[in-house]
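Deliverable D5.2: sample structural annotation.
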Amino acid sequence: MIPFVLFSMRRAWQGFWRNALMSMAATLTMVLMLVLLAGFFILQNVLLASLSFVEQKVEVVAYVQQTATDDQVQTLIADTQAMPQVASVEFISREQALERFKATQAAQGREDLTQYLESNPLYASINVKLTSPSELETVTSALDKDPIVRNVLNITALVNRVLTVTDFVRTAGVAMVGIVGLIVLFIIVNTIRLAVVARAEEIEIMRLVGASDAFIRWPFVFEGALVGLLGALITLGLLYLGSEPLGQAMVGFFNVLPLELGSVGRDTVILVLGTGLGLGVLGSWLSVRTYLIR
């Protein structure tokens, strides 16, 4: 088995350079398609990271009655934190609310009119961050029922719009990556098929002299894998060279969003290598198969 594999790999290497023009055409096509696929994948992850950041900013604000005691407020905070739909709870006192209002006015270049007030008109509040924006109704209803809660800020319409946009982008992103993947598969298979067609006479001669299907097929499969691997490595090199200017452009464009893309780089490498090798092998297998089943 091992000698046959080594023989097939050697034949693949020879076939790659013997038909260098077609091999280079298949490799360049592979590079173009992988760059397109990786670009869509990275763009989708950037959009999803942006939406996740927006989702994290969704919070429920419940204003507390001025007559509420400290024990009642602490009980409300503890009960709210115990809810599985809640990620965190922050208590904002009346004094803190007033200081935040003053800071906001100063940041906007407006005059501080609070100095003319006889007393602080603002209410204390608890700001509740959710595990998911879809849990808004559950948390809002629970807070509304508490006797020390004066009212809960209604942001249902805003959250519904955020969820609608998020679901659409996620669905459309997966669909677009899938469509691009199918287009890549179609183009690569046909490109490699052209390379196989150029060697149809060689395949026929091997069949006439009694070569088995495996003897004919596997060198082409390894050659397709070589095309896929080479195309993937060139693609990763191009992405690496373009990562710094692209990253700077993305930071400039999304400068208001502290995005955390996590493992996108690693996932992109896996996607490019896996897709390149997979398409190379699959394209060669399908292309040679059309001759072997005649």
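Annotation notes: The chain has nine helices and four strands. The radius of gyration is 31 Å.
The annotation will be released with the project's public dataset once the embargo ends.
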